[in-house]
Amino acid sequence: MSKNLEKFIQKKNKEKKLFTPGPASLLKENISSIQPCFGRGDKNYEKMENHVLENIKKISGHKYIARMQGAASLALEVMINNFLFGKILIIKTGVYSDRLYNMSKASKRLYKNIKKIQYIDYKFLDEVNSNFDWIMGCPVETSIGFKIPIQKLKILKKRCKSKLALDATASIGLEEDHEYSDVSAFSSCKGLFGLTGASFVVFNSNAQNEILQFNLDIQTHLQKKMTGPYHAICSLNDVLKNYDDFKYSVLVNKKYCLKKMKDKLKYKIENQPNLCTLIDATIKKKNRKVILYQSRGDISGSIICHLGEVHLKKKSKGKILDSIYY
């Protein structure tokens, strides 16, 4: 069975060469722990889920975690509605920060815990000196292939005497310092290398807001009052046992890309995310197997993502990049 599974995975990964930001290439480990399961009374599944959630908490550096079935967008709405209040600053980086802004405006209107919202371009962060109850942003904004180091957000948090909330969808696992956030939200299928379908909110102190809406109340998910992301959780079980081997592939791909595309890079090194790279050129594919990333943002150039050889683990050499050109 193991050899047959290996052949199946190899065949599927040969059929597509992904340059997209998640999910990653198909992993044997995504499938090897899939099983019939249920969230109540299934001791085997409960043990697996506990293993997965404990490992995710270690990766994020937080005490508590809520898991839910849905995209990162659901986890972000849960995070915003349950945790954020008062005067908040949102850092403008692109499409995904716009999403945070729109979610926050809706939360302010519906639940009234958020009193005031300021939306400030990341280029002007050094000019921010006001106090805020919360600061929120995307450390990695995939729509423009840009990274704000979380260390910089930590300094901003301290200067503004605020708490920090992160959309960590494109940064979790792949970037350092998530522990400096008070709450973060993300999905199963990018830097965690799981299948799509699960999302998470990690935090250190309980949410203060009361949300009288079943799906958006974090207690609904903490108390497991609805069907959970059982099979997406299963897909992470074996991956997290050897997580660093899969992460190695992403880092190798990124390093090779920086070398191969060095004359076309748009950002300096400190603003280069490990997940993806924006270059000042139009990428073309050498064959029909290549799937290029189409950003939701209005950008000039192309974004290359580095999850396409994750299945190779430490055998990865970044050679998938040889199947594209500009």
Summarize the structure in words.
The protein has 326 residues and is of the alpha/beta class. The chain has two domains: 2-26 and 242-325, Alpha-Beta Complex (Aspartate Aminotransferase, domain 1), CATH 3.90.1150; 33-240, Aspartate Aminotransferase, domain 2 (3-Layer(aba) Sandwich). The chain is built from nine helices and 15 strands. It has helices at residues 2-15, 28-32, 43-60, 72-83, 95-111, 150-159, 218-222, 230-241, 243-260, and strands at 17-19, 64-69, 86-92, 114-121, 134-137, 140-141, 146-147, 163-167, 183-187, 198-203, 276-279, 284-285, 290-292, 302-305, 324-325. The strands form five sheets. It has a seven-stranded mixed beta sheet with strand order 2-10-9-8-5-3-4, sandwiched between helices. Strands 1-13 form a two-stranded parallel sheet. Strands 6-7 form a two-stranded antiparallel sheet. Helix 3 (43-60) crosses helix 8 (230-241). The termini are far apart.
Offer a concise description of the structure:
This protein is α/β, with parallel strands linked by helices and 326 residues long. The protein is 34% helix and 19% strand.
Secondary structure elements and pairings:
Elements: H1 2-15, E1 17-19, H2 28-32, H3 43-60, E2 64-69, H4 72-83, E3 86-92, H5 95-111, E4 114-121, E5 134-137, E6 140-141, E7 146-147, H6 150-159, E8 163-167, E9 183-187, E10 198-203, H7 218-222, H8 230-241, H9 243-260, E11 276-279, E12 284-285, E13 290-292, E14 302-305, E15 324-325
Parallel strand pairs: 1-13, 3-4, 3-5, 5-8, 8-9
Antiparallel strand pairs: 2-10, 6-7, 9-10, 11-14, 12-15
Helix pairs in contact: 3-8, 4-5
